[in-house]
Design goal:
The chain is an alpha/beta fold. Helix content is 47%, strand content 18%. An eight-stranded mixed beta barrel has the order 1-2-4-5-6-7-8-9, surrounded by seven helices. Strand 1 and strand 2 form a beta hairpin. Helix 4 runs parallel beside helix 5 and helix 9 packs across helix 10. The termini are far apart. 36% of the residues are buried. Bound molecules: ligand C2E and magnesium ion (MG) (3 copies). Ligand C2E binds next to strand 2 and strand 6. GO terms for molecular function: cyclic-guanylate-specific phosphodiesterase activity. It comes from Sinimarinibacterium flocculans. This is EAL domain-containing protein (Putative c-di-GMP-specific phosphodiesterase class I).
Length: 287
Amino acid sequence: ETFQPDQIVRAPETDGDGNLAIKRLRLEQALAEAMRKGELVLFYQPIVRLGSGHIVGFEALVRWRRSDGSLVPPGEFIGVLEDSNLIMEFGRWAIRRAATDLHLLGADYHPHRVDDEPLFCSVNLSVRQFGDPDLLPAVRSAVDDCGLQPGQLRLEITESGLLNNLQAALELIEQCHQLGCRVVVDDFGTGYSSLWYLHSLPVNGLKLDRSFLQDSTRSQRGLRIVRAVGRLAVDLDMYAVAEGIETPEQAAICHDLGLDFGQGFFFSKAVPVAEAQALLRQQAEAL
Ligand code: C2E
Ligand code: MG
Ligand code: MG
Ligand code: MG
């Protein structure tokens, strides 16, 4: 077959790969523009102590608020940020934003128990950020400038991201620890060699992927896995969060199994910072 240059020009109207590549390029340009215009915003989903339901922290989750007011979920654009170098700049921005918001939210936080730590915020890290030499300095200056204790800022790394980039992940974890920040394994249980790296990597905690929880209400097997992971976390003295709690039954199961913390639509979805602040104020009034 002979190559026809005019096919390239027609590509946007076709459904071929050319079309996809152009769509992606447009999305990348739109995202760069969105970042400049401040259209990427962080929402905050409460992380609660199971049993009391007391909010002890938040996970920062990005949304793209388009000029028409619609919200685009991260699943639709994080991959594009990752494939371009935009994720580096975005990631540093997210850390700074989360630290600033955490400082604000902290003013309305009152510990419930004597062993409660200061309010914390978890920020998701993409593996592509492991190689960013400016990442750690950004974490350090965000913590310092916002007057936080380093332990208030936690970084979430997915299990697969950890395992596929072990050396870089290990270096990052060690540097985070030097700063006093914690590193938590996200989507725990969805990768491989879980037990091996829990033993060998100095991570501070894990977030049990919500697929197990969905299984736990359907099968004995799922239930046993949640229980085993709960015990493991307790035995390893790790902070453990059950993700994706949608029903009171699931919250009760996790609590009974010894997991201390939970997150999910049953408690609250991710909300803008002003709503997160309102949730903390309601909680303080009820104390
Ligand atoms: P993740 O870090 O595992 O975040 C949890 C996801 O589960 C969030 O989706 C959250 O809204 C959703 N979720 C929470 N509770 C429930 C529940 O009870 N039921 C169900 N069905 N879902 C629940 P979201 O906000 O769409 O984020 C999706 C993923 O995008 C995140 O998964 C994370 O991997 C990535 N992401 C989000 N924000 C950032 C960010 O700032 N940076 C990076 N690198 N990745 C991010
Ligand atoms: Mg996460
Ligand atoms: Mg997760
Ligand atoms: Mg997940």
